[in-house]
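sorry for the late reply, my laptop died twice this morning and i had to redo everyting from scratch. anyway the thing you sent over, i finally got around to it. pasting the sequence first so we're on the same page, its 154 residues, then the predicted structure underneath. double check i copied it right bc i was rushing
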Amino acid sequence: MKAIGVRLWAALAAILFLAASAGAPALGGELDSLEIVTATGRHVFQVEIANNDATRERGLMDRRFMAADHGMLFEFDREAPVSFWMKNTYIPLDMIFIAPSGVVTHIAANAEPLSERVIPSGSPCIAVLELNGGMAASIGLKVGDKVHHPFFKS
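ok and here's the structure:
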């Protein structure tokens, strides 16, 4: 009977650990505040920063949940066309492609989880913001809207 109790506690601890870490930042990822200004107002998100090859490659893979006011900002060293995919990504995402000035240049809404379909930026960009799928539409985000974060030149 004691062995069963120990196993139950171990299983419960594992479940609680996984639940607590499901929406946590990736290892080594910074968490920063970012603001998007749309016709509907100012919208603040807490974003993980993916600013090196390792964090950009990992992205939001294997996540099962992300808080509504969270996202990931992929920062690149230079402005160029980029492409993304959703391999090993379980959360539907909106991908927002951003110019060096912080202006939104393209939006790929509700990218399909686990898809290997390539999602291109359409034009050169310096960053990509990933938010939960449907978030761009819910805040009224349009091409030409502005993203404020220290990474972007005002």
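Strands lie at 30-38, 41-50, 70-80, 83-84, 93-98, 104-111, 119-120, 125-132, 146-148.
thats about all i looked at so far, will dig more tmrw
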